[in-house]
Design brief:
215 residues, mainly alpha, 11 helices
Length: 215
Amino acid sequence: MRKITFILFFFLFQQLMFAQKDQYYHFIKTWNFVKYYHPDLASGKINADSLFLANVEKINSGQNINEIIRQLTGNLNTKFSGSPIIDTQKDILSENQNFDWFQKNKKIDAENKILLNTIYKNRFDYGLLENGKSVSDEKKYPFPKEENLPPVYRLLALAKIQGIVDYLFPHKYLMDKNFDSFYTNLLEEAVKSRPERILKLYLPRQFQNLKTVMH
């Protein structure tokens, strides 16, 4: 009975997700940006996963990208008092980036472009991380391996895949295939698949494809 209830809930959530796949893509793209760059999230003062989980179910098909950006950043501090970081550091988070997704996006208004650029200029200095801490650290969840993850946590896992490649994989722009296109297809197929198909068939195959793309 529990399994039937879960599958029914997942089916309804899945239909809603597919109708809003573009909004989810924009949401994930923006969330990863603030996760890795905003000082409060990157330092761990605010848990990035909590920001994701508190907002992801508020996404609706009527939203545009500007509304999504404001939704994710509306409660964050955007009045920075420190000195902006100058782009002279040879670190992965400044050397491996292309921000055309918002800087050249005509659908994003000037206010939001200024906001995202300001967050980047005042980004967290990862050299200040405590000993033993790493930019790749992720929160662990106590879900049993044999248990089906709730849909929002599956979406969170997919979001983290994008973030890892966008911000931590040093050869993203040397790939034979465009990762953003690959990821868009991954997200679209994942929201269309049944829960057991995602776990047993689709994601393992796509992760193998991802390894091929990344080599």
